[in-house]
Amino acid sequence: xxxxxxxxxxxxxxxxxxxxxxxxxxxxxxxxxxxxxxxxxxxxxxxxxxxxxxxxxxxxxxxxxxxxxxxxxx
Length: 74
Description:
By secondary structure, the protein is an all-alpha fold. The protein has a single domain (2-73), classed as ACP-like (Non-ribosomal Peptide Synthetase Peptidyl Carrier Protein, Chain A). Helices cover 57% and strands 0% of the residues. It is built from 4 helices and no strands. The chain has helices at residues 2-13, 34-48, 54-57, 63-73. Helix 1 (2-13) packs across helix 2. The longest helix is centred in the middle third of the chain and has 15 residues, at 34-48. The model has no long low-confidence stretch (mean pLDDT 95).
């Protein structure tokens, strides 16, 4: 799952692949802004056929958080 999220971040949000690690923070380390985070959420929802609740978005601090959430909810 990590590799799939990494691929999304690289291909769709143009994040440097060398910066993407499970412990990398989406905002502080990867420079993702709120609009890009919304894009990431939508991409994940479309790709994995799930709905990510607005209340859960605040849980997405690191790349690993996104991976864990998707693994639990797909």
